[in-house]
Design brief:
Elements lengths: L21 E6 L2 E7 L17 E4 L1 E6 L11 H5 L4 H6 L4 H10 L2 H17 L2 E7 L6 H10 L8 E9 L8 H14 L8 E6 L6 H13 L3 E6 L7 H8 L3 E4 L5 H8 L4 E4 L1 H6 L7 H6 L3 E4 L13 H10 L5 H7 L2 H6 L15 E4 L4 H6 L6 E6 L2 E5 L2
Parallel strand pairs: 4-5, 5-6, 6-7, 7-8, 8-9, 9-10, 10-11
Antiparallel strand pairs: 1-2, 3-12, 12-13, 13-14
Helix pairs in contact: 4-5, 6-7, 8-9
Bound molecules: N-(iminomethyl)-L-glutamic acid and fe (iii) ion.
């Protein structure tokens, strides 16, 4: 898995370094060697037989909203009656109802709930992820969400993103909200509570000019930047992300061809979230056009209580095959090396010296997991050389 570069883009994405009949030699928490069984000359205290199985790096999920109170199944009736995601939000429900539930939850409650989600994600093969705040929208609750993530578990590498610009509080307006959130970033900039800043750039939420100013200010303050762009309406989020050098541009369902071309010339990772298109019954991002235009692609669950209540990254891989028409090799790179790059995370590859985060699969090849639909193909998950999950 050593590609000699930190990400794969465009045509390069359709390659995988595969070792058949392989061994992987781990000492403590590190990968020390690998190769074919024929050339193996190590002896080991513990031997894990992987006959008829596959080993891959632990997967990386680069876009989740997994720290929140409550759930939103009560909105199903509205959805079935035809109310859109933005209509539900504008009724004061949607994100606002999760904000209410998150305000009312204690930090311990948030942590317990998040740990269950993380445990489920570990079981699907994920060992690194990004998690956003954004269900507080005020100082105290945003802070509670971010603090809840600190040292939460050893079983998951977590990068935190401040998403105080996720919605406009019911009694406020976009300008007031953004100026409060900038004050938050300034106040907590040395706290180590978050590494990235994100914004929901969308019709009736934050527009392009506001998002640009906010993200540039966050960048100046030393943060990496991410953007929820072109999720529902094609506002120009792709162009914006490329223009300001975002670490990732996420969703991109309605991005224009100019926006896609601009991303293909940038180092911004296009994090695509097919589970959200599926759950909102929307069209799908144009992944093939992005790959043809040399983009760096990542895939994620977008796990959240409204638009993607789904922890299963393997289902996302199935959707990427069927709906995006990505190849199995492209898909594996989009859940390992590329999302790790978008998070500045040393993960997502198994090379000599890397941390031993890996998954043993009940599969004999990489195509099988992508093809076998909506179930879990994981056998065992190891984090830093330790068995953390065995799926029976
Ligand atoms: O990525 N669109 C904004 N944020 C989330 C949804 C959050 C929610 O509905 O609670 C998303 O789709
Ligand atoms: Fe999201």
């Amino acid at each position: 898995m050593d590609y000699g570069k930190p990400y794969l883009r465009g045509k390069e994405l359709d390659q995988l370094k595969i070792v058949e009949h392989a061994y992987l030699y781990i000492v403590n928490d590190k990968v020390v060697d690998y190769g074919t069984m024929e050339e193996m000359n190590h002896s080991a205290n513990v031997v894990i037989d992987c006959t008829n199985k596959m080993i891959t790096p632990g997967l990386v999920d680069p876009h989740t909203h997994l720290i929140f109170g409550g759930s939103r199944e009560k909105e199903i009736a509205l959805k079935l009656q035809g109310a859109s995601y933005l209509e539900i939000l504008n009724m004061g429900l949607g994100i606002h109802s999760t904000v209410e539930a998150t305000k009312n939850a204690s930090i311990n409650e948030l942590q317990e709930k998040a740990l269950k989600v993380i445990d489920t994600m570990n079981g699907f093969g994920v060992t690194s992820l990004e998690c956003k705040s954004g269900y507080g929208l005020d100082e105290d609750t945003e802070l509670k969400q971010l603090k809840a993530l600190v040292n939460l578990t050893n079983n998951m590498n977590i990068k935190s993103t401040f998403l105080g610009a996720h919605a406009i509080p019911k009694d406020s307006d976009s300008k007031t909200q953004l100026s409060k959130m900038i004050s938050f970033i300034e106040k907590y900039k040395d706290s180590n509570l978050f590494q990235f800043v994100d914004i929901f750039c969308e019709d009736s939420v934050f527009n392009i000019a506001e998002s640009e100013e906010y993200l540039l200010k966050s960048k100046e303050l030393g943060f990496g930047i991410r953007i929820h762009g072109d999720e529902i309406k094609p506002l120009g989020g792709a162009e914006l992300a490329a223009r300001i050098g975002a670490n990732s541009a996420d969703h991109l369902i309605g991005s224009s061809i100019e926006g896609i071309k601009a991303l293909g010339k940038s180092n911004t990772v296009c994090n695509l979230l097919p589970g959200t298109s599926f759950y909102l019954n929307k069209s799908y991002a144009k992944a093939r056009t992005m790959i043809d235009n040399n983009c760096i692609i990542g895939l994620s669950t977008d796990y959240n209580p409204g638009s993607s209540p789904c922890e299963n990254i393997q289902f996302i891989m199935n959707l990427a095959l069927l709906k995006y028409k990505m190849t199995p090799k492209e898909i594996w790179n989009a859940v390992t090396i590329n999302p790790a790059y978008s998070l500045n995370l040393n993960a997502g590859t198994l090379k000599i010296g890397s941390t031993a985060d890996f998954v043993i699969w009940n599969a004999q090849n990489h195509e099988y997991v992508v093809y076998h639909n909506a179930v879990n193909d994981v056998d065992k998950v190891y984090k830093s050389g330790k068995l953390i999950k065995e799926v029976v």
